[in-house]
Each structure stands twice: as structure tokens, then as C-alpha cells.
Amino acid sequence: MSRNKNDCVLIQGLVNVSQIAAVAGHSAEIPCNVSNPLADDEASLILWYRVDLANPIYTLDVRNVPINGARHFPASEMEDRIYFNVSVHPPVLIFDPVLTTDEADYKCRVDLKRSRTLILHIKLDVIEPPGEPIIMDEHGQHLHDVIGPYDEGSTLRFICEVDGGDPSPEVTWWRGSSLVDDSFNVTKQGFVRNDMILEEIQRGDWMAEYTCRASNTNATDPKEASLQLDMNRKNYFFHT
Question: Which residues belong to any copy of the Ig-like domain (predicted)?
């Protein structure tokens, strides 16, 4: 995940709130700028808290050692998927993978040897990707790969439904790189649905590929499902 060095500004003794977005199932990084604002001071402890929990989820003990030789103490229930990387600037707490349940407010507390404690507050938003699109005909029959054959001149209706995703995904139909239909809605059952109607299919539609895409973030590729149209083409007779 990319981050901007200006996303988080650490001000001595003050609370500054920043916001980071991540995608569930991928890695996430939340930064803590532990640069010392006082030239004659240094950190002794760095603690990460999830603000709704009493105990720290990560402790970095820098007492009597350089920061690269510090002792790491992740919370036992998270030790297999979090790590505080102090080899980059600013240092980052890495979740790998990040879960939807990790969405919360966090704070990085830096205890200095001589100065007052520094605190940085960060909000982590976790995006839940949508499920795989399901393509159906108007009778609810699941469709994929090559379908048909349909008679040339027929009008066809294809339904694409997607379950899950937070925030709710956009569900669109494409033919190649061309957008065909972006008129999706949310059903009573909570599915996001897009009905595509192809009016009077022509010879140019033979073996055309249509793709339903579901996306709720630019951070990952959209989920996709595709089909191709087979066709019974009309025979044209010309009289001379």
C-alpha cells in the first residue's frame, strides 16, 4: 500500500489524527513518525495501542540499545501477522494480512527519555472486497463460458449479481474495453445487481465476450465473470 510522507505529522505532546485505508486479505501499513523533535533526546519505548483495548498490541523496547537493535513484543494473539518495521522512514506497523476486524482507531505512543510523551492517532479503515460475480439468465440459470446458441435478432437479458463488499461495490457490464451498462441496484436480499439487455443481437455479436465487473476500490483488480454468445445466424437469399 502506498503512503504519503505527509499523511501523518507528529507534533510534540499533541494528538494528530490520520486515516489509512487497506483491503482485507492484503497487507496494511500504518506509520508512526518517531523522529525526535528534540536533538538532545531519544526514544526509550514505542507502544502501539488499539484504542478500544486496554493493553498495547505492540511494544518496541529501545532502552539502552539503538532502534535497529530494539526488542519487539507483539501481542500474543496477533504475533503471527503484525510487525513494527523500523528500517523504513517513517516506521510502519504492518498487518499481514489485515482483517476486517482490524478496522479501528490506533495510537502510537513514543516515550522519550527526557521530554514528554509523543502520541500519534491513526484511523484504519478496512475495505472488504466483493464476492465473485454470478451471471444468470432471466430464469436464474447460471451462465459462463460460451452460451447459446441464440437466434440472430433475439433480445437477450443477462443478470449479474454480487454478494458482499464493504463499501457496496459498483457492478458493471463491459464488452471488451467498452462500458455497456452501469445501472446497478441493491436487491432486498442485499445483492448488488445489474440487468443487461441486448436488443436484437446481430451477426457482429457472434462469439462476442461480455464481462461483469464488481469493484469497490482502486487498490485491487475488480472481480470478473464473462460469457460469450453463440448464435444461429440467419441465411439471407438474394434473388436476381
Answer: 25-119, 133-228
The secondary structure element, H or E, covering residue 94 is strand 92-95
Q: Which tens digit of pLDDT belongs to each residue from 182-225?
A: 999 999 999 999 999 999 999 999 999 999 999 999 999 999 99
Q: If DSSP codes are grouped into helix, strand and coil, which group holds residue 214?
A: strand
Strand partners, 175: 178, 210
What residue segments make up the domains of the chain, in order of their start?
Answer: 18-127, 134-232
Task: Please indicate whether residue 71 or residue 14 has the higher confidence score (pLDDT).
Answer: 71
CATH topology of domain 18-127: Immunoglobulin-like (2.60.40)
What's residue 68's pLDDT? 84
Please say whether the beta carbons of 133 and 162 come within 8 A: yes
Question: Are 126 and 23 spatial neighbours (Cβ–Cβ below 8 Å)?
Answer: yes
Q: 3.40.50.720, 2.60.40.10, 3.40.50.150, 1.10.238.10: which CATH number matches 134-232?
A: 2.60.40.10
Cα–Cα distance for residue pair 57/96, rounded to 1 Å: 14
d(CA 197, CA 113): 69
Q: Which residues pair with 126 in a beta bridge?
A: 22
